Amino acid sequence: MSSLSPSRPGATLHRERALPLRLALAAALSLCATLAGAQTTTLTLEQALRLATQASSSNKAAQAAVEASGMAAARADQLPDPMLKLGVDNLPLSGADKYSTTGDSMTMRRYGFEQQWVSADKRQARQERAKRAVAMEEGAYLENLGKVREEAGKAWLTLLYAQRARQLYGQLEKAMADDLGAAQAAHRGAKATAADVLQSQMELALGQDDSRRAAQEVASARIVLARWVQTPVDTVADTPPPMRAHLSTVPTADLEQYHAGVLNARRAIDLADAETTVALRERRPDWSFEAVFSQRGSQYGNMLSFGVSIPLTVNRGQRQDRDVAEKSALGTKARLQYEDALLEMRAQIEQMSLELGSLRERAAQLGATLLPAAQQQVELAMAAYRSGAGTLPAVFKARRTLLEKQLQINELDKQAALTWARLELHVIPHDMTNQARTAQ
């Protein structure tokens, strides 16, 4: 299948040779810029994936979530803020010292601080839980990144095979136009009938309609691709990926290293375990320490008070122990979901790998056997018509048959490419994974 290359502007340099060197250089630079501009509208698959990754708002939102969880993790092991306590004790409401803060010996102006103390192991458990939450957000980012890459890749591939279909329809339309011209010339020379001319006109009209429909499909595919790369696209390079399936050879136990969905299921287990550890540490209450300076009138002595507040876990079996049991059950849930995710992912990989292999084999077999026969049928019909032994409708039918087979193979190639995109584009390149981890 020949590729559709964008038209490149050309320019003669005869007039520039008579210009001064500076103007000639400016013209050459302008020509280079024009060529570069033409090339930027022809996207390769890797360029489309990169542009979609950079432009996706959902990716940026996921990155913001990772950053937010990182900020939460940075403060997870900090002690609560101390509390400043101000007040007045024993203020008289009647008598000679009414509303006086210095007249009565019992009246005191109180200044104090209170600090809730969280043990080191409890703060460490909270920080570990926060780190696991960051890992979960990172996993969600990688999973979203895989979805964006898949959708952008499918949009690119859809446009590629729409371009190929349009090219096939264009070739048929051109052949029909040539046939009409030949039929009209033959009719003028009394070598063809008016029916042959009319049949040629009808076939050309059908070919033109097919071309317009193919052009509309190309335009629709451009819109979908532009939605992901967020830049106008004229054409995509006619260089489809090799479509090799890598995940099919990965052991089930190692899938979490390659697929963000399974990785996220594993990190959900780690987060659930960290939640359980925090719940176990929280069974021990946090103490609060308080120191208060009480200032009285100048004729009375000042006082210092201090104390500790200890929550009483009077119903641990119904409160703290149930919290631990809840988090432990959620850990069991995460482990079962991880096992199910592994089985589901392995089944999907095997199914899509089988489908990919079947589609590629069918396309190759049809290309090797059916296309040559259809092409030979066109040549035989043309030879018979030229010798007077065949009819023009037979030529048109043979060409239509050839086009149908070419479009059939093109559709099989397209379905194989889309299957490959669903199978492989969720595999995140290592540089993106490392970037997500180092961005914390």
Task: Explain how this protein is built.
With 440 residues, this protein is of the alpha+beta class. It is 65% helix and 8% strand. Strand 5 and strand 6 form a beta hairpin. Helix 4 runs antiparallel to helix 5, helix 6 runs antiparallel to helix 7 and helix 7 runs antiparallel to helix 8. It starts with 20 loop residues before the first helix and ends with a helix. 28% of the residues are buried.
Task: Please give a quick description of this structure.
By secondary structure, this protein is α+β, with helices and mostly antiparallel strands. It has helices at residues 21-40, 45-55, 57-74, 120-188, 194-229, 260-281, 320-386, 392-424, 430-438, and strands at residues 42-43, 83-89, 108-117, 235-236, 287-295, 303-309.
Global geometry:
elongated
What is the count of helical runs? 9
Distance between the termini: 47 Å
Structural class: alpha+beta
Query: Order of strands across the widest beta sheet?
Result: 2-3-5-6
Mean residue pLDDT? 85
Q: Which regions have little confidence, pLDDT < 50, spanning 5+ residues?
A: 1-40, 431-440
Provide the succession of SSEs. Answer: HEHHEEHHEHEEHHH
- The Rg value, from CA coordinates, equals 38 Å
The tally of beta strands, per DSSP, is 6
Q: Give a short account of the largest sheet.
A: 4 strands, antiparallel
Q: In which range does the helix fraction lie?
A: 55-70%
Percent strand equals: 5-15%
